[in-house]
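Suppose a colleague, Dr. K., hands you the sequence of a protein chain of 229 amino acids and asks what its three-dimensional shape might be. Before reaching for any lab equipment, you can write down a predicted structure in token form. Begin with the sequence itself:
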Amino acid sequence: MSSPKPTTPSTNATRQSTQIFSTAPSAGADLPPGIPVSMIELCTYYPHATQRPDLIRRGVRSRWHSTTFAKAQLEARAAGTYTLLDLEKRDDTVRQQVAETFRQLGTTATAWSESPAGKPYDKPFPGTGRYEDLWHVDGLGHGKTGSSGAPTLGELVKGVKKFPKGEDRGVLTMVLDWAMEQGEEVLREMTTEDVKGIVEEQGFESPKGARGLNWDREALARLALVCDV
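The predicted structure, expressed as tokens, is then:
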């Protein structure tokens, strides 16, 4: 079932738009090393990470843009309750982040996506020959924000209203589901540094899409089923 469309702005719209992402990890929060992470997972657990140029470039390579980033972030943390003003404000914020990313390269998102460097993936990850390694987040640097350390698993799920599902439910979400089942102590004490070990111990496996070239692009089609993008 599709989520309700954004409502029209109310008197508390401005207040709400500043609070939706207030509990999310900071832009410099460390990503979980050694595992593939879907774009929907990144938007869900790390909405502030669109301040990081490498993440923006990964999305633009698969034809994501400011509005799709914004809607994925809002769907995760305010599904059915965010207003049109919330969407406009978030879209404007991410648009500035996208523009700054490519300004640093002396180009624009459109020009970069049409260049050889910005073309969608057409072969497995160099060196390993594994498609899944295309989606590892080890190489997504912190950018100007610098590292703020490894967030706890509890910090990742705080404020999330809708968790990734289906092909967007990668091993990170599987670990977080497992952690929530274990209880508050695990959520409080385990961090993103523990994620890879939990994946291996529990035998979690990435969805089929993570073992191909189009995981991020296919996520756009799934996002369109729940909101207009």
